Amino acid sequence: MFGAYFIFGVSGFGSSIIAVPLLVQLYPLKTVVPIMVIIDICASLYMGKKFSADANFKELKWLFPFSLVGMVLGVTLLVQAPSNPLLVILGCFAALNGARVLWQRNIKPKDPINKWWAAPFGFFGGIFTALFATGGPIYASYLDLRINDPRVLRATMTFAILALTFLRLCLMLVIGLILSWPVLGLAICLMPATFVGILVGTHVHAKLSNAAMRMAYGSILLFSGTMLLVRQFS
Q1: Average pLDDT for the chain
Q2: What is the pLDDT of residues 146-158, one digit of tens each?
Q3: What is the DSSP string of the chain?
């Protein structure tokens, strides 16, 4: 959890896609996902309070309607569907986009992609956010193609995670996945490691250049996607 939220402090995303594949080795997916909802809300509130001035809220207004539709479908699949095929898809997506960001890390930013790309990115991000708490790489891939400033990118990602986690919280309260002592107790036990990781990651982020930030984003995506695929195929 320290490592996962160190990454979150550096980049504004990436905590769940690192933590979930490891936590599901110890606990059921239907326990891990609600735990990450609770912790992500606390972490995002802390980060959002510190960096709200840098966030680009106009980008989020385009993502959220499509994300909500995807999240309703994702919660349904969480209860009913096998997880392995979708985790393989997410792993491939994250790894390929990480390789793209690393390949282009020193290339001058191009014009942003069309805002209507928010529809597929938001929809599939919503599905994976609700299913596995791991939609961050999808949103990061979209916002990276729309926002060139690393500070704005991190702040916008933080608010995206906060808002989408709140929606997940509401959906999981409705279906009863969060209100259990094992979920709440384990979330509380993991909080200290979470906030120490955020503090250290935030300190490191302040020293990163634009190229270094893109390298960090690409490395996170490539590593998390590869680890997800390794876990699934092993």
Answers
A1: 81
A2: 887 777 887 888 8
A3: -HHHHHHHHHHS--HHHHHHHHHTTTS-HHHHHHHHHHHHHHHHHHHHHHHGGG--HHHHHHHHHHHHHHHHHHHHHHHHS-SHHHHHHHHHHHHHHHHHHHHTTTSPP-PPPPGGGHHHHHHHHHHHHHHHS--HHHHHHHHHTT---HHHHHHHHHHHHHHHHHHHHHHHHHHTSS-SHHHHHHHHHHHHHHHHHHHHHHHHHTT--HHHHHHHHHHHHHHHHHHHHHHHH-
Angle made by CA atoms 104, 107, 112, in degrees to the nearest 5? 85
Q: Find the domain containing 69 and state its range.
A: 2-233
The yes-or-no verdict on residue 109 having pLDDT over 60 is: no
Q: What is the mean pLDDT of residues 122-139?
A: 81
20 contacts: CB under 8 Å, gap ≥ 6: 32, 33, 36, 132, 133, 134
Tally of domains within the chain: 1
pTM score, whole prediction: 0.70
pLDDT given for residue 229 in this prediction: 85
Cβ atoms 66, 122 nearer than 8 A? yes
As a whole number of Å, the end-to-end CA separation of the chain is 23
